[in-house]
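Per-residue structure
===
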Amino acid sequence: MTHNELKITTNSPEETRELGTRIGELAQPGDVILLVGELGAGKTCLTQGIAWGLGITDYALSPSFVIMRELYGRLPLYHLDLYRLENPEEIIDLGLDDYLYGSGVCVVEWADRGLEILPLENLLIKITSTGDRRDFQLIPSGEHYREMIGKLTKNPVRGKS
């Protein structure tokens, strides 16, 4: 059974990190998770949860000014932020293929700045926010990511209100 997408709403930073933790627990080597959302939508908060799910104890700060941070746990986490980049050519010039096609988990914030050059198989997460509410639309591209969505659906995130 395959799943095409999953919509999840969180109502606090803790619930957002819980969703991220669940995704991190399911992550496998080579996973690419693309995050799209406005400034303050919760991309870094979700990434912090993914880091926790990978067993990373360091805090996953936004890498906006350094473009990429590496953190280590069960698998390496390559946390990229494309916010400061203007066009796909700048992304290509960074030579990120070792991260995007490597054996770690790659989380890309502001992925919409380079969707056309990022791996075709990925988990795209679109985030919209209103106050403390965050709406997540998880869109899998590829069988592995559809299976991940299926596991998230069978064992949903339980909010901590």
In short: The chain has one domain: 6-154. The longest strand covers residues 122-130. The CA atoms of residues 78 and 99 lie 7 Å apart.
